[in-house]
Amino acid sequence: MSEKEMVDYVSNRNIKGIIVGLDPISKEIIETDNSLEIISKYGTGLDNIDIKAAKNNGVTVTYTPGANTQSVADLTFGLILGVSRWIPTHDRRLRKGTLDRNQGREIWNKTLGIVGLGQIGSAVAKRAQGFNMVPLYYDLDRRETLETALGVEYRDFKDLIAESDFLTLHCPLNKSTRNLVGKSELTAMKDNSILINTARSGLIDEKALLEALKSDEIAGAAVDTFESEEALNTELFSLDNFVGSPHAGASTKESVLIMANMATDEVLNVLRGKQPAHIVPELCDN
Amino acid sequence: MEHSYSIGVVNSSTFGVYHSDLLEELRRFGEITRFTVDPNIPGDKLAAELRGEDFLIASVTPDFSEEFFNNQKDVKLIARHGIGHDNVDVEAATSVGVPVTRVLGPHERSGVAEVAVGLALDCLREFTSASISVQEGKWDKRKEFVGREISRAKVGIIGYGNIGSRVAEIIREGFKAEVMAYDPNVARAVIEKNGIQPVALEELLRTADIISLNASLNKDNHQMLSKEEFKLMKNNVVIVNTARGQLINEHDLADALDSGDVGAAGLDVVQTEPIEPENPLLDRDNVLIVPHVGGYSDYSLRKMDEKMVEDIKAVISGEIPEQVVNPEVFRNEDRVGILNESSSGC
């Protein structure tokens, strides 16, 4: 839904609660009528919601942290293997009657760089153990307990991108992480490395990624989220060393069920005057 | 000065392609010639093609038959650039004192197992199909791609050998899923020790959400998954085959996919390779096929190429290479004579 469609939909309906996925909830929507009490985000990424406006209007915003953790971590590894062994590329070629094979990369013993060791980053690190990869991470803060529990080592961001054979992003999108991986980072990555993004699209400069893939600056990439889902960069999709999935990280039966229950419960909590379980952190601060 | 030998690379499109340093090393011992012959070439014609070659690096084709060995007297080693050696008449090779070697299992262990896990994840999450639909401009089709988490699935491994045990380990350790294995040739204790549940085949077929075939082909397991077995399985089961295409009856699998008895299949191997255009599994929404790429990876190919060079060096220096299929040739005292004879043309 576009912002306009959303405004039209919400206006004059006396809506008390909205359960929302990826569609925009702007200031205008929040201020459309005074009835709104809760925006319940079905998911974890909050960049489509104007949280400041919600706060100013006394609207509670909740989300469903952890519901999609396993699903996103599974897809991350699916995409890692898919790109490194050229599974979509080989499958597509075979359907067209072409039998050419590309040499794949095994992942055991290779270095996995995890940007953001939150719930999903940690779930990815756990899976890396099963594959006998060497997991490293970067985060704003050292997470020493997790380092021991997951067998991951800390690197600063610069070292992480230079050392990783696979670099996977699991941090939120905000002012300081926008275009986290741009031209200079792609240049600093190893020539034979692979970039994975199952987090937010703005973390990668898509144009720079296209150039890096075309000039073999990195070996491959798999991306689940895009700057504009309406106007996809079709050239990116035409490359053999790129896999693009349609924001499917949380799309599993298990995750959908957990998220639906959590998101519905939060609306009911607020309407019944109870304390919601997961108010977004930005509203907890003060 | 070192004796110069002739080294023939037969029908291998990969040996030395990615690792030219190994080709250079091999050239110190002689001249390398690449041969591309008809996969069905008769033995006598093959012998004529390969006349004068001392060492042969052999692919999955052609057949090195008794007729070949009776007509090509120069060969001192057949090194299979792979594990299976069903295209070499080992008995005939032994009778003329020619050792046949193959690559080591561990070289392909993770390479193949990772493709098996990759195919399983792709069948569960459909990222290949989804990426094709996005490429075709159908972003909104994303709503249809609701997958399943592997950690909540029951995974059944058929064949708990070199590769099956690694698939089990990755899924158990990495995804914490419940894993069971069927292998009549492996002791229960060996399977249990790794936290895997040993089960009878029927139980595996009835209860698994994902079935991974990791058995080597023998006379008893040809088309072990056919109509009856597919009927036993849970609806929506995912089948992954990175072993041999002959383990599955492909027409029955196609029927089972049509009827919904099987949910999806991820195949690295098919009955006839390269795949024939009339294969009933080709170009379906719920079937992924890749062209036998399990061992086609950086580590595997490097190790396989290294093994070829090591084998040739070993035979030249009178040592016994690793993984000789017919070790009895080295017990024959006459063999020393073969090595000391000057090669043809000298």
Instruction: Report the oligomer.
Output: heterodimer
Classify the helix fraction of chain B into a percent range.
25-40%
Name the strands of the widest sheet of chain B in spatial order: 8-7-6-9-10-11-12
Second-tier CATH architecture of the largest domain in chain B: 3-Layer(aba) Sandwich
Shape of chain B: elongated
* DSSP strand content of chain A: 5-15%
Query: Rg of chain A from C-alpha positions?
Result: 20 Å
The main β sheet of chain B shows up as: 7 strands, parallel
The CATH class of the largest domain in chain B, by name, is Alpha Beta
| Most residues in contact: chain pair | A-B, 55 and 58 residues
Write the H/E string of chain B, N to C. Answer: EHEHEHEHEHHEHEHEHEHEHEEHH
What gyration radius of chain B follows from the Cα positions, in whole Å? 23 Å
Low-confidence stretches of chain A: none
